[in-house]
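Researcher: Please predict.
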Amino acid sequence: MDPQAPQTFANHGRFDPLFHFVALPVFALTLIISVILLVKNPGWLTGWGVVLAVGALIAVFKIRLYALKVQDRMIRLEERLRLTGLLGLAAQPQIDKLSVDQLIALRFASDGEAPALVQRAVTENLSRADIKKAIKVWRPDHWRV
């Protein structure tokens, strides 16, 4: 996505080219090739190649998921601080009722519409997608990977 283009619900998703188009296909292809080699030449060495390829593919996914989890935790913290600033300490019980998914979605809401969306998210139990679709003035997040 062009960093200068306005971010919207339709275009806010991002690909990490090195992960999605290089590392993931390489490790997936390695697993496929190692299975083919095991079928053509059964043995402990080709079997170990499959085990190694599975382990490597799992590691690649887990490394990616750990990074996303850390980002989610940071977004949760940032949004709780932002919402406390926007809504005040009196609204802390409302903020505490928001799920991590709701907080992650609310990061895209402008300061003007965030308070109303917090109330709707809590009372209507809005999903991440529902919150994003309800946003009128999008606050871009170009740092997420």
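Model: The chain has one domain: 17-134.
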